[in-house]
Amino acid sequence: MPRFSSRFTRSLALATAGVLTLGLAACSGGAAGGGSAGGKTTVVWSTWGSADELKRYQEFDADFMKRHPDITVKLQPVAGYDDYHSKLLAQLTSNTAPDVFYVGDDMIGQFVGSHRLMPLKALMNGSKSQSKEADFSSGLFGAAEQDGEIYAAPNDSNPDVFWYDKEALKAAGVTDDPATLAAAGKWTTSAFLDMNKKLHDAGLTGTMFWNYWATQWSWLSSQGASAPYDKSGKFVANKDADAVKVLDQFGSLFQDKTFVVADTLPDGAGADSVFVAHKAGFLVQGRYTIGTVAAAGSKDSYDIAPWPTPDGKAAPTGVATSFLAINKATKVKDAAFTFWTEFLSAQGQTFRLQGGGNAVPSIKGADKVVLDGYPAHAQTFLDMRDIGFVNYPTEARLPGIRSGIGDQFLALYQGKQDAQATLDAVAELVQDGK
To answer: Are residues 78 and 114 in the same domain?
Structure first.
């Protein structure tokens, strides 16, 4: 279910009333985790989510309890993504936290650093596990793995793909299809920028991007620059001439309004609204966009492509994830692990993500839920997941760093500073945060 930061806040604003209603129905009446009484064990778990997402979780809980009549599961949702983590940290500190809980990819490093998450590697590889360490797509653990131990696992994933509107492209005089070009190894940066120019000249928006880590570092990677962090976790992009060059190009396209920062669009005319109104060629988002275009009744107009590259060969790009962890202080370790491993298993992910679900599985054996016929090139989600990268551990471990980095990139997009100044400022933020 990964949709974070500005993107998640935006989606929650539309569903807050429904979330709060579900939350009141689902809460156990207190903040503490579960326990055992009368031969039954109660597992309390927590997450954020839209009304539809929480409904799917409640369906999973009901199915789980049918298979485990000795375990009662209680969902404890929190409406806002930012509110969720601050509340959870306070609960962990006061020993009143749920037994099992979600953690976002921009927060997982801080939670691991709190030393309040249960080490999971031995359990994952044990006889009772339905979600072995080797079953997960490589590279998706990120900051959830530290010093050879695993403290949480990715419950699913969302590679940012280039959703494109065939109707908008046609209106701009574009005759090539991005997914067809990608399949032929011809989805180049040049071809992509030519389409964006035609869209801009036709009075349409070229591409809408969200201002967060996957946008910034995916552009670097897709355009051939090195990773922004070295193996030790030091920020080095400001010393990389290629990184400075490609980000200057990126910034200039926002400045001339070919690209748009989706976070800055006004209420009532946000990225989703612009996209389904056929006023933009591309929207860079995850699989959850299926729900947006389906609700608009215009699914046939849309398809997906990977990030364009200078030579047309696929490059690693960002994969948003969220993680499922177990409270180290849980009083119901066995039941909590049973719920945890079944939730993450191929069967559990299939249950949660089938029927046009909002994410891409993180575990082997569940990929068929993505290949259900929509969009036409849905295999792209899986291909990008398999070669992609998650949020860098350095950023996931530094409180508040993402907001500061986002502010610096927004200044670049608005023409208030150049790429070198932006990257220098990010390097200083990272250094000061350590």
So the answer is: yes
**Cα–Cα distances in angstroms (integers) from residue 413 to residues 173, 201, 429, in the given order:** 27, 20, 18
Q: How many residues does the chain have?
A: 434
Same domain, 136 and 247: no
pLDDT 10s digits, 353-376 = 988 778 999 999 999 999 988 999
Phi-psi region for residue 308, left (φ > 0), alpha (ψ -120 to 50) or beta?
A: beta
Averaging pLDDT over each range in 32-41, 351-360, 404-413, which range is the top one?
404-413
> Which stretch of DSSP H or E encloses residue 261?
strand 259-261
Contacts with 355 (C-beta within 8 Å, 6 or more apart), sequence order? 372
Range of the domain at 108: 5-158+321-387
Give this prediction's pTM: 0.90
- Are residues 82 and 10 part of one domain? yes
H or E stretch covering 179: helix 178-183
| pLDDT given for residue 32 in this prediction | 65
Judge if 116 and 23 occupy the same domain: yes
Phi and psi at residue 261, to the nearest 5°: -80, 110
Do you find a cis peptide bond into 266, omega within 30 degrees of 0? no
Q: What are phi and psi of 368, to 5 degrees?
A: -60, -25
Same domain, 380 and 301: no
Q: How many domains does the chain have?
A: 2
DSSP symbol at 118: P
Residue recorded with tokens 């959850």: 288
- In this structure, the answer to whether residues 402 and 331 fall within a common structural domain is no
Q: What is the CATH number of the domain that holds 22?
A: 3.40.190.10
DSSP string for residues in 215-241: HHHHHHHHTTPPPSB-TTS-B-GGG-H
Give the distance between the most distant pair of CA atoms in the chain: 70
| Contact (Cβ atoms closer than 8 angstroms) between residue 23 and residue 79 | yes
